[in-house]
Amino acid sequence: MEIAQDVFGDSYKTAERYVDILASRGVDWGLIGPREVDRLWPRHVLNSLAVGSLIAEGSIVVDVGSGAGLPGLPLAIQRPDLNVTLLEPLLRRFNFLTEAVAELDLADRVTVVRGRAEEHHDRYDVVTARAVAALPKLLGWCLPLMRANGQLLALKGESAEAELLDVQKTLRKGRLSGEVLTVPAPGTAESTWVVRIR
Predict the structure, then answer these.
(1) pLDDT, tens digit, for every residue of 155-186?
(2) CATH superfamily, domain at 2-197
(3) Per-domain residue ranges of the chain
(4) Where are the alpha helices (DSSP H) in the chain?
(5) What is the DSSP letter of 32?
(6) Helix 12-21, helix 91-103: angle, nearest 10
(7) What is the per-residue DSSP string for 16-64?
(8) 32 Cβ contact list (under 8 Å, min separation 6)
């Protein structure tokens, strides 16, 4: 995919290998629906990179409920400056991620941890989540993982504004700010909604 080559640059071959893993083992293991295979690049991989422009260079990132590795793996592939932890409670997904990270030769800067966010005690500059849970629940899991001056970047659908309204009380209590950003997905004509909590 020519656009993806531009977006990933020198890391394109690794990104291509990751898409191949998603299209084969990801489907076989039930992490990706068979109908999604034709849309892996635009809808999943490039869409995941939308949050990249909001992440400072050299950040330490945790991807909560990483599943098939979205958005954590595309970010790690495109951005060698990031140190990424993929946090996933389910054994099958954890095994998938462990194999993928090894095959993509990313183990020097991507760590796979099996566990639930509420039991994980490390702190990060950036917490990402994509299609994990509604914002009220997500905040409970993710806020304790944020360092001082850290941020949560939650990739959301059209419900982003409504979900942000639901957590105003929590944000005020924690002296946090929240906003919905419409961020272009690199290499596509589409934008995605990102809820940013700081």
Answers:
(1) 999 899 999 999 999 999 999 999 999 999 99
(2) Vaccinia Virus protein VP39 (3.40.50.150)
(3) 2-197
(4) 2-8, 12-21, 27-28, 47-48, 72-78, 91-103, 135-142, 160-166, 168-173
(5) S
(6) 150
(7) HHHHHHIIIIIHHTTSS-GGGGGGIIIIIIIHHGGGGGGS-TT-EEEEE
(8) 22, 23, 26, 40, 44, 68
Residue-wise pLDDT tens digits, 120-151? 999 999 999 998 999 999 999 999 999 999 99
Residue with tokens 């944000």: 171
Helices (H), 22-63: 27-28, 47-48
Q: Hey, what amino acid is at 131?
A: A
What is the rounded distance in angstroms from the CA atom of residue 167 to the CA atom of residue 133? 13
- Helices (H) and strands (E) in the chain — how many of each? 9, 7
Q: Which residues contact 38 (CB under 8 A, 6 or more apart)?
A: none
The beta-carbon contacts of 38-41 under 8 Å, at least 24 apart in sequence, are 41/1, 41/3, 41/4
